[in-house]
Write a structure and sequence with these properties.
The chain is an alpha/beta fold. It contains 16 helices and 13 strands. It has two domains: 187 residues, Rossmann fold (3-Layer(aba) Sandwich), CATH 3.40.50; 173 residues, Glycogen Phosphorylase B (Rossmann fold). Helix 12 links the parallel strand 11 and strand 12. The mean pLDDT is 94.
C-alpha cells in the first residue's frame, strides 16, 4: 500500500489528540517497514515532533502557514502529487480529498454539547465531521462509546465503523515512591500529599466542581493535601481562578500548566489518586496512564470512562460534589481500597498498548484497500 496520513494536532501541545497522533504514527513506523507512508504535516514542528527517519516514511510540509487554507488547497495537491492510494486523517477529515479516506473520530461532543465550545469552532468542526462521516470509507472510533454515539447521531451502519482503543506509552510505569515524591517536590514544588488532575482545563472537564469537592473534602477531614491541576487553560476555564479565590484555596490548589510527557510519570506516581471528573470523554488517556503507574483513579461514571476504566477505578457521579469529596476521602483513608485500586489499575493498563493500536489501524487500512480493489 501507499498510504497517506494527515495529522493535525501533533506538535501543537494538544493533549490527548496530539498524543494519539504522535504515538500512532511512531508505532506504525515500528510495526510496518513494508508499506510506504506519506505524512502531510501542517508545519515543521510536526515533522520534528514525530522524529521518524526510516525510508518508507516521507514527510510533506503543507503551505501556507494558515492551516485552514493549506487543508483546503495544498493538501489535495500534495495528495495527488504523492500518488497515495488511501488517506488516514487522524483528527478531522479533509475538506476535500482526491483519494478515498478513513478518519479517526474522537467523539461527537461538539454535536452533543455545543455549549462547551465557541460557536465558530462548533460550526467549523461539525461541518467537517458531518461531511467526513458521510464520505469516509471507514471511520475509526476511539471507543465503543464513540462508535455508539456516531451510530445514534448520524445513523451510520456498524460496518462503516471500527473501534480502536488508544495505547499507553512505555514511560508510564510504577516508580519508587520516595523517588517520585522527591522529583515532584523539586520540579513542581509539591511538598505534601496531593490529588492530581491531568487534562485540558476546559468546561467539559468539570474543573470548577472538582475544586469545590476538594474544598469540601479538606473541610470535612482537615486533610493537609493539595490539589494539583496539570493542563492548559482553554476557553470555558474562566471560573477556575474565581472559584479558587472564592473558596480561599490559593495555597492548596496548584495550577501547574502544561507539563511535558516526561514529567507526568512522577506526577502520577507521587499522587494519592488521579481525580478525573469529566462530563464527556471520547477515551480519557489520563485514566490509563495513571493506572499504568499504579495510581488509584477516581473517575466519572459518564461517557467512555466506564468502558476504559473496566472496573479498575472508583466511579462516581461527576455532577455531585458530595460524591467526589466522599471518593477522595475513601481513597485517602482506606488503605485496603487504595491497594485494591492500584492492583486492578495495573492489570487493566496492560490491555492498552500503542503497538496493538497501530496493528489494528493497519488492519483497517488493509480492509479499505482490499475493498477498493474488489
Amino acid at each position: 500500500m501507499k498510504m497517506g496520513v494527515f495529522p493535525v494536532m501533533v506538535g501543537r501541545v494538544a493533549a490527548g489528540p496530539e498524543t494519539y497522533e504522535h504515538r500512532l504514527i511512531r508505532a506504525l513506523a515500528e510495526v510496518d517497514t513494508d508499506n510506504e507512508y506519506h505524512v502531510f504535516c501542517l508545519d515543521e514542528a510536526a515533522v520534528a515532533a514525530l522524529g521518524i527517519t526510516q525510508p518508507n516514511f516521507i514527510f510533506h510540509v503543507l503551505w501556507p502557514s494558515n492551516r485552514w487554507v493549506s487543508m483546503s488547497c495544498s493538501l489535495p495537491l500534495a495528495i495527488r502529487r504523492s500518488g497515495v492510494q488511501l488517506l488516514h486523517a487522524t483528527f478531522t477529515p479533509p475538506p476535500f480529498s482526491p483519494v478515498d479516506y478513513l478518519f479517526t473520530m474522537h467523539g461527537a461532543v461538539t454535536f452533543k454539547h455545543p455549549q462547551f465550545y465557541p460557536p465558530a469552532v462548533v460550526w467549523r468542526l461539525n461541518t467537517l465531521l458531518r461531511r467526513g462521516l458521510q464520505r469516509a470509507r471507514l471511520t475509526v472510533c476511539v471507543s465503543e462509546f464513540v462508535k455508539q454515539e456516531v451510530m445514534e447521531c448520524f445513523g451510520l451502519p456498524a460496518e462503516r465503523l471500527v473501534t480502536v482503543h488508544h495505547g499507553v506509552s512505555e514511560e508510564f510505569v510504577p516508580m519508587h515512591g520516595a523517588a517520585a515524591a522527591e522529583q515532584v517536590r523539586r520540579d513542581q514544588g509539591l511538598d505534601r500529599p496531593y490529588f492530581l488532575y491531568v487534562g485540558k482545563l476546559h468546561e467539559n472537564k468539570n474543573i470548577v466542581r472538582l475544586i469545590e469537592a476538594f474544598h469540601q473534602f479538606i473541610c470535612e477531614t482537615r486533610s493537609e493535601a493539595l490539589l494539583a491541576l496539570v493542563g492548559r487553560q482553554v476557553w470555558g476555564s474562566e471560573g477556575i481562578m474565581e472559584t479558587i479565590l472564592r473558596l480561599g484555596l490559593t495555597q492548596r490548589v496548584r495550577l501547574l500548566g502544561h507539563q511535558p510527557q516526561s514529567a507526568l510519570p512522577a506526577l502520577y506516581n507521587a499522587a494519592r489518586a488521579l481525580v478525573f471528573p469529566t462530563l464527556w470523554e471520547g477515551f480519557g488517556l489520563p485514566v490509563v496512564e495513571a493506572m499504568a503507574c499504579g495510581t488509584p483513579v477516581i473517575a466519572s461514571n459518564l461517557a467512555s470512562v466506564p468502558e476504559i476504566a473496566g472496573g479498575a477505578a472508583l466511579l462516581v457521579d461527576p455532577r455531585s460534589t458530595v460524591d467526589l469529596a466522599a471518593a477522595m476521602h475513601r481513597v485517602d483513608l482506606e488503605a485496603g481500597l487504595h491497594a485494591r485500586l492500584r492492583g486492578l489499575g495495573l492489570a487493566r493498563a496492560r490491555m492498552f498498548d500503542w503497538k496493538h493500536t497501530a496493528l489494528a489501524t493497519l488492519s483497517a487500512y488493509r480492509r479499505v484497500h482490499e475493498a477498493r480493489g474488489a
